[in-house]
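Notebook entry, structure prediction.
Reason for the run: the old model in the group folder had no record of what sequence produced it. Starting over properly, with the input documented here first.
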Amino acid sequence: MEAHEHSNPSGQHDATIHLPAPTAWPIVLAFGVMLVFAGLVTSGFVSLLGGVLAIAGCVGWFRQVLPHEAHEDVPVEAHEVVIASARTHVKRIEISDEHRAHLPVETYPVLSGIKGGIAGGIAMIFPAMLYGIIGYHSIWYPVNLLGGAGVAHWTNPTTAEIASFHLLPLIIATIIHVAASVLVGLLYGAMLPMLPRHPIILGGIVAPLLWTGLLHSSLGVVNPVLDARISWGWFVVSQIAFGVVAGLVVVRQGKIKTGQSMPFILRMGIEASGMPPEGKDRH
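New structure, fully documented this time:
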């Protein structure tokens, strides 16, 4: 930037700053490029209009910067700035344990998530069995439906085969159910402290509904045969039973502080000289 001062008869000096001249051509260019790509999914005429605007924007912009950049003189207004303070002494910032804390400050222990997952997994067994009894007069139908995907020779089983007892699908279904229940229970333990109001409703009802909607939209592509045999109404009921029971078990457990404001060496449980003693603030 260049500053120029021009004298006048009154003896005062008017300062100006030499700045690049404003231009609207970059906006025209950006709008044209946007229309070019928008025309790929709408109409070729939109892309054609965008190409014309993009070329016009480039030409107009380049004419303002080539061979010499366009400038304008902007007058400078001098203002006297007075910095004053009503404070008579320096105040110290009091830093608490929650200073710049990463939420949540408190969370549930890992064991509570495992307990909630196990309890929720047991709770969702009952609506699944009720669905099998009402729909197919067999408690093994939902079990085989879950575990039959891991059986190699079950490429296209009949309804009678799914409704009968099979040991291998039972073992596979048990492994899948236990692993999924524990993992989702751990997720609930980490998620519920982030829900300030009505954690059971949000974590036990809203989350299962969202999860069911995501699974329903993707399972038809991943496994159409399994998607055709699932009763999504009963699936939602079992998921809500899991979420409510798991959430109640997790919420009843006591919270523990995350200890994020403590030094790393203390969070690791290492005792060293110079560390603050127990019961005092650690900043």
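Summary: The domain at 2-75 is CATH 1.10.287 (Helix Hairpins).
The old model has been moved to the deprecated folder.
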